Amino acid sequence: MIEALRSLQARVTGAAPPPETVTDVAEALEKLAATLEPFTVGERDQIAGHRGDLPGRGQAMSPVLHVDEWDGAHVLGRITFSRFYLGGNWAVHGGAIPLAFDEVLGRLASTGRTAARTAYLHVNYRKITPIEVELRVEAKVDRVEGRKRFLTGALYDGEHLTADAEGLFVELRPGQP
Ligand SMILES: CCCCCCCC(=O)SCCNC(=O)CCNC(=O)[C@H](O)C(C)(C)COP(=O)(O)OP(=O)(O)OC[C@H]1O[C@@H](n2cnc3c(N)ncnc32)[C@H](O)[C@@H]1OP(=O)(O)O
């Protein structure tokens, strides 16, 4: 279902259908939304974001990270921004890149440790990040100071660095949301 939704997002973004097709698609989507409405659950029980066994944790918000290496200290993986993430001139939208970094660094920050939240995320846009190209993602934990975890990450198109990020993730105290 989530994979189909990702595909739909990319198709909708890249399409210019005739008005009758727009109407048909809109009706079909409204029907689908109505089909799911009776199955609305609380956050704890929803599928999206909670299925570690599915690509992208089963959520369609950020692009899927395909993991090649992952431990408590570093991540190596691959990520492809579909057309859904198009900003302009075949470059990924500037807001989608921090989204991807937050997903990777945020998960790494909490791997094998108490959960942490993003306190800040600084992103440098070095070159255009292309749409529909498999990119290499690298991330690591640089240092831990008490509750503070400092992580860095980078996105590469081949040998070209397209963006890098530095984030602070603060360990949550018991009862902190
Ligand atoms: C499975 C999940 C995968 C995806 C995960 C993605 C992660 C996310 O996106 S989380 C959502 C986005 N983030 C948020 O909503 C966080 C909102 N902010 C907060 O909840 C709080 O401000 C929080 C938890 C970050 C820190 O608050 P609090 O626990 O009270 O910490 P606090 O005592 O103020 O600060 C702790 C230390 O961090 C430092 N610090 C906190 N915020 C910052 C900041 N923005 N910049 C610099 N330093 C900071 C403080 O100076 C302090 O340092 P020191 O111990 O040296 O004095």
Question: What does this protein structure show overall?
Answer:
Keywords: Apoptosis, Cell membrane, Cell projection, Cytoplasm, Fatty acid metabolism, Hydrolase, Lipid metabolism, Membrane, Transit peptide. With 177 residues, this protein is an alpha+beta fold. The chain is 25% helix and 35% strand. It contains three helices and eight strands; from the N terminus they run H-H-E-E-E-E-H-E-E-E-E. The strands form two sheets. A six-stranded antiparallel beta sheet has the order 1-2-6-7-8-5, covered by helices on one side. Strands 3-4 form a two-stranded antiparallel ribbon. The longest helix has 18 residues. It is globular, with a radius of gyration of 18 Å. The site of octanoyl-coenzyme A has 16 residues, from helix 3, strand 5 and strand 8.
Helices, strands, pairings?
Blueprint: H1 2-14, H2 19-36, E1 65-70, E2 74-80, E3 86-88, E4 91-92, H3 96-109, E5 116-125, E6 134-145, E7 148-157, E8 160-171
Antiparallel strand pairs: 1-2, 2-6, 3-4, 5-8, 6-7, 7-8
GO molecular function, one term: hydrolase activity
Membrane topology: Peripheral membrane protein
Protein name: Acyl-coenzyme A thioesterase THEM4
